Amino acid sequence: MLKKSRxxxxxxxxxxxxxxxxxxxxxxxTKEDYxxxxxxxxxxxxxxxxxxxxxxxxxxxxPCIHRSGRGGRCKIYxxxxxxxxxxxxxxxxxxxxxxxxxxxxxxxxxxxxxxxRSR
Length: 119
Ligand code: SF4
Ligand code: SF4
Hints:
Elements: E1 2-3, E2 21-25, H1 31-41, E3 46-51, E4 56-60, H2 82-86, E5 96-97, E6 99-103, H3 106-118
Antiparallel strand pairs: 1-5, 2-4, 3-4, 3-6
The structure holds iron/sulfur cluster (SF4) (2 copies).
């Protein structure tokens, strides 16, 4: 992962990690698998990216229901789940560039597939 020049610490951040979620998806191997990746991109506010280890991830811009508005505080802070307690700025994507290639739209994905096939 490439470290960014300025490190943002959790206590000076608006809590961007509460505004969405990232899930690893199956790495496509067959033609049909590659077709299936489109399904993620058909959804609103959903991107797919390949990280620097070659893992495929779906990133959904869906804020947590416990957030009091965009950029707001956690309404269940003292009872927040372990996942929220364990996240730290030292592993945060705000501070490390772990994206090899990102597809924001089906068009971007198709262009990448065409380029890949022509190699
Ligand atoms: S983990 Fe990252 S996004 Fe979340 S509060 Fe810390 S610096 Fe901000
Ligand atoms: S439970 Fe609180 S800390 Fe965890 S994602 Fe939701 S708003 Fe953020």
